[in-house]
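Quarterly update from the structural biology core.
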Amino acid sequence: MSLSELRNLTDRLSKHAVLPNLIPNLALRRTERTTGYEALMYEPMIYFVLQGEKQLSIGRESLTYGAAHFLILSVDVPVNARVLQASSEKPFLGIEIRLSRDLAREGALEMLPALPLEAGPAFAVGSMSGPIADVLTRLTALMEMPADAAHLAPLYTRELLYRVGQSPQGHHLRDALRVGGQSAQIQRAIDWIKANSREKVSIDLLAKIAGMGVTTFHRRFKSVTNLSPGAYHKMVRLHEARRLLLEARTVSSVAFAVGYESASQFSREYTAQFGAPPRKDMP
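Predicted structure, tokenized:
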């Protein structure tokens, strides 16, 4: 099956307002217009672009990827994302496969290539091969086959992971699924930051949670997420603040809710991050 078949299938299915949740880890993405930057928290995933183009800002790095490419992430990362190419005639089309370490217990890990000794960033962009497009088409088509989905979706998912695992970006997938891998260690620290974002960050505590020495933890955290632990913590706070502002809260109440002691400091950091003061994001 070709990329055009997958694109046509996704175009048709994504027009439905509601689809049965037959494949829990798969989501279709569609938009018919370009967008400005949106602050999002991306979880471990493979994001395939079938049509259009998207851009992400992760820390100081910018990634642009379009049709026949995929983004792979192995830890939770705060990003600013925007759609660069989309129209009503040629909408942006994507498929998101959420990664869970439960997949490792289903035997997916054994199919993947070995990791380098010192893994780098937790994100990368790769090219979709013919075999990847083929299995992704078969997996997506199961959204219309309730009788087959329960039996075939796990098999096709394993095959998809195998195909992605054979790509030059395959080690990112292995790291996303390894329970004891570097990304898993960093993810434990990330989970603490997200659950305790109102608290001040203690590098010593985060290093202990990750099971690393302080110097090693700081170096690897920045290598994996493209952000220092302190910068990551601030991004989590500001992303949560942006969500709360949409609930029509006051700027000062949002500042205190996410852990700032000064509303003016919050406004300065919010404006620096998102390019506009907090009041601009209130409904």
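The mean pLDDT is 89.
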